[in-house]
Amino acid sequence: MIYTIDSSSHVPAYLQLYRLFVRDITSGVYPGGCKLPSKRTVSDEVGVSVITVEHALSLLCDEGYIESRERSGYFVIYREDDFLTDPVHTSKNSFTDSGKGLNVGSLLPSSATDDNIVKNIAPAARRGDFPFSILAKTMRKVLLDKSESILVKSPNQGSEELRTEISRYLARSRGIFVDSEQIVVGAGAEYLYGLIAQLLGSDLIYATENPCYNKIVKVYESLGIKCDPITLSSDGLYSPELAATKAHVLHVTPFNSFPSGISVGISKKKEYLRWADTRNGIIIEDNYDSELTVSSKAEDTLFSMSGGSRVIYLNTFSKTIAPSLRVGYMLLPADLLKCFKEKLGFYSCTVPLFEQYVLADLLRSGDFERHINRVRRKKRMQ
Question: Are 312 and 282 in contact (CB under 8 A)?
Fold first, then answer.
């Protein structure tokens, strides 16, 4: 093991060691199923303490590169197609240690220099549950960094910091490219349904999936909107009914629709887009569960397939982090942005700045994407 730790670097030794392991695991030096050298061996050969090695291995376990097997050691479980983004190369937000050439990317925990925290990180217990230790660590960091600024009123569409990080996350993980101005942050999907209804108007008929999440229809009908339920077959909305509806707005959940669990393929997505084009309609793409796909590539979104026109994209952090975190966001087509600001720009953002800053930090640090990778890996093993 020819690993060299730079003792003069401001980057902690365990992070340098972690980075070296990541490099060799992802490049195949340590292939899947391979047993890593023991902690004592690594300690002796690299010239660091056993505790330093333990911290590096704990982080590798937490991120799904390796797993610990009782009385057997550490084994590589990494597979390249498990990752939404490149785990080795850093983004332009990465930092370099004093010109020594060791890049520590933004995918490392933002406050990972706290040795006592990293050792306590544990994988999520249930699908979508975010590790509480990481969430608590990030909350403490935001309180220290932002101080009393968390008490300030949020900009109406949400903080620029969070909207920028959402924009960057969508670009690198989903192939969705939007300006932060096209993003509106709100307290969950149901609140955003209401904004959309006010934006598009109550005089239009909305086609919805049947069955669908019942609150979708309840929110629209409470605002005086007529909904036309379209039968959801095994491959998506039943084509004859979709063609026959008089609706000009279509609300769909293309991935893992609730309660049916149906996901639609690329052909059906193209059918939805043709439907919108032929009648000058709008599609509301409710993609609340799409990050948790077991596919090796992220699901194609209607928003990206449409080039950002005729589709309003919705997503939340309730599934991916915690149900109690009532924070969602929507992406508006550029040609609807002016109308939104004129009609609804006066609405105050319903999410406290503290929660927005926490989410922004989770996205910026890579903690959110590492969590998604862990959940996807577990789902594959079920």
Answer: yes
For domain 13-105, give the CATH number. Answer: 1.10.10.10
C-beta of residue 272 within 8 angstroms of C-beta of residue 247:
no
pLDDT band for 124, please (50, 70, 90 cuts). very low
Instruction: Read off the pLDDT of residues 246-261 as tens digits, 9 standing for 90 and up.
Output: 999 999 999 989 999 9
Residue 307: pLDDT band (50, 70, 90) is confident
Listed in sequence order, the DSSP H helices in the chain are 13-26, 39-46, 50-62, 115-118, 132-146, 160-174, 189-200, 214-222, 239-244, 266-278, 302-305, 334-344, 353-365, 367-381
The number of residues making up the chain comes to: 382
Task: Assign 57 to helix, strand or coil.
Answer: helix
DSSP per-residue string spanning 103-166:
EE-TTS-TTTT-HHHHTT----SSTTPPPHHHHHHHHHHHHHHHGGGGGSPPPTT--HHHHHHH
Cis, peptide link before residue 259, omega less than 30° from 0: yes
pLDDT, tens digit, 9 for 90 and up, residues 166-178 = 999 998 888 889 9
- CATH for 154-351 is 3.40.640.10
Domain boundaries, the chain: 13-105, 154-351
Identify the pLDDT of residue 297.
56
